[in-house]
Amino acid sequence: MPEEIIDLNAIAAYGRPINSSNTSKEVTFNQVHLILYGDPSTKLIYDSAHKYFNKTLDQTYPHTYLKKDVFSSLIQKIHPSLKLQFVVEIGSFTGNSASNIGNVLKESYPGSFLLCIDTWLGDLNMWVHKAVWQHLSVSEDGRPTVYYQFLTNIIKQNLTKIVLPASMTSIIGARFLRTFQFHPQVIYLDSAHEQGETLIELSLYWNLLQPGGILIGDDWGWRSVRCDVKKFSYMKNVTIERAENTWIIKKPVD
Ligand SMILES: C[S@@+](CC[C@H](N)C(=O)[O-])C[C@H]1O[C@@H](n2cnc3c(N)ncnc32)[C@H](O)[C@@H]1O
């Protein structure tokens, strides 16, 4: 089996990283906001959210397993001295797990932030089996509006300086981070869980993770997830830890 699953240097736009040094640099909420949307001191994205779809706080999406205490205790157990500054979530939906992570960061890690990478277009279960369909909030003309629910939920919990959304596919999100050489200490993977796509996500985000960092994922109960996570751990010779439906892999320091 080849060691690398995907060529990590084959970035479509311009072909090479903008920050070409290989040293990881500290990244802030303001920096990423500036790159994606402009200066947050004059044009914070949350300021315009109320113009669209008039949503109110809604935390009723039922399948959030990453609660505040689960996130904190995982960090404490796996790497208690890990200094969290930059966390990435792939798959945020209405923002329940994002809020849980965001609140932990706000309380315990001053200056840190969470980047939420999601298309906000849902997954196969939602479209085919209509699972949690109402939370996708599809407009009459066929477009999910759950992104505005996410924004509203983050605003209502005063997390607008801690949680930053990026409406991208997981692959584009990884390429974005690689382009700027932004390396998170913790990554939470909870996207579509399709077999093959999960393996690519694992491969891309593993390479972005800081040495000593932690990769956490949801839905060990899904066969597609288990297959890809096990394949990945075999190929990289790393150990999978489990906490119920959550799986965890710690990246060695070198
Ligand atoms: C199960 S939901 C996430 C739930 C959330 N983490 C929680 O616990 O509250 C899965 C999310 O993954 C997103 N998603 C699916 N495929 C994706 C992809 N290829 N790239 C980015 N996001 C994706 C969907 O839009 C959806 O919002």
From TrEMBL:
InterPro entries in the record: SAM-dependent_MTases_sf
A Pfam family annotated for this UniProt entry: Methyltransf_24
Protein's recorded name: Class I SAM-dependent methyltransferase
The organism of origin for this protein: Adineta steineri
